[in-house]
Specification:
Blueprint (H helix, E strand, L loop, with lengths): L4 E9 L2 E6 L2 E7 L1 H10 L5 E5 L7 H14 L4 E4 L5 H10 L3 E4 L1 H5 L2 H10 L4 E10 L2 E6 L4 E6 H11 L3 E6 L11 H10 L4 E4 L5 H9 L5 E4 L1 H4 L5 H10 L7
Parallel strand pairs: 1-4, 1-12, 4-5, 5-6, 6-7, 7-10, 10-11, 11-12
Antiparallel strand pairs: 1-2, 2-3, 7-8, 8-9
Length: 251
């Protein structure tokens, strides 16, 4: 049986780690390179870095950050934010990233998923999907959750898999930063529709929430930020709790 993965997420703005609630009200959470090193030492299975204010000019800055992180850690890490071309991906992978995460650019140009999967392999390509429920329907949002679309979450998830994505990072905007638990009903449904791993994101507040997302949400991995950044949950304690609930994790 595949082990479940615990993934701290570092949202990067102007070279610093930040954390918000429902995608707004950001506060500083520290130096990303230092945090990455601590997480790698303390049992994280992977890391995700999202440049939440990424624009074209910042791509180089992000590549430098990736290089600094790669020198300090020995676990896989994924980088996302403002990636819109084969060249962007090449730069980040050459700088030391193991995977890239694309979101808005994939919705605007779905063929990009095919191109990236063909050139770099599906295992490198994570499609991040930010969605929220509107009138009972899960709809995809773009640009860090600021721009709503009419695209339905479950249709889009199936399409990105068909186009070659190796993983889906699903963030429920309704749950993000609330610490009330993950969107397990939606996660479980996603798990029945696609055959690629799903990373649950948005809503972690205590260890029980992780237990629930693996058992009820059927997630393959769980991603969180503030509970790790502000030491509300220690990763090894969490893994022990998961083991106590017969959930396979790497210790």
């Amino acid at each position: 049986m595949l082990t479940k993965r615990i993934i701290p997420c570092l949202d990067i703005k102007n070279g610093r780690t930040v954390k918000g609630v429902n995608f707004v009200d950001l506060r500083d959470a520290g130096d990303p390179v230092e945090l990455a090193e601590i997480y790698a030492q303390n049992g994280a299975d992977e890391l995700v870095f999202l440049d939440i204010s990424a624009t074209e000019e910042k791509r180089k800055t992000l590549a430098e950050l990736v290089m600094r992180v790669a020198q300090k850690i020995n676990i896989p890490f994924t980088v996302g934010g403002g990636i819109s071309s084969v060249e962007d991906v090449e730069l980040l992978l050459n700088s030391g990233a193991d995977k890239v995460s694309i979101n808005s650019s994939a919705v605007k140009n779905p063929q990009l998923i095919n191109e990236l999967a063909a050139k770099f392999g599906s295992q490198c390509i994570v499609v991040a999907i930010d969605a929220k429920q509107i009138d009972g329907e899960w709809l995809v949002h773009l640009v860090g959750g600021k721009v709503p679309t009419n695209i339905k979450l479950f249709d889009w998830a199936k399409e990105v898999e068909q186009r070659g994505a190796g993983e889906i990072l699903f963030t429920s905007m309704d749950h993000d930063g609330t610490k009330n638990g993950f969107a397990n009903v939606a996660l479980a449904k996603l798990g029945t529709l696609v055959n690629i791993p799903i990373i649950a994101s948005g809503g972690a507040g205590n260890m029980q929430h992780f237990v629930e997302t693996f058992l009820m949400g059927k997630a393959d991995a769980a991603l969180a930020a503030s509970v790790f950044h502000f030491k509300e949950i220690e990763i090894m304690d969490l893994k022990q709790e998961l083991k106590n609930n017969n959930i396979e994790v790497r210790i």
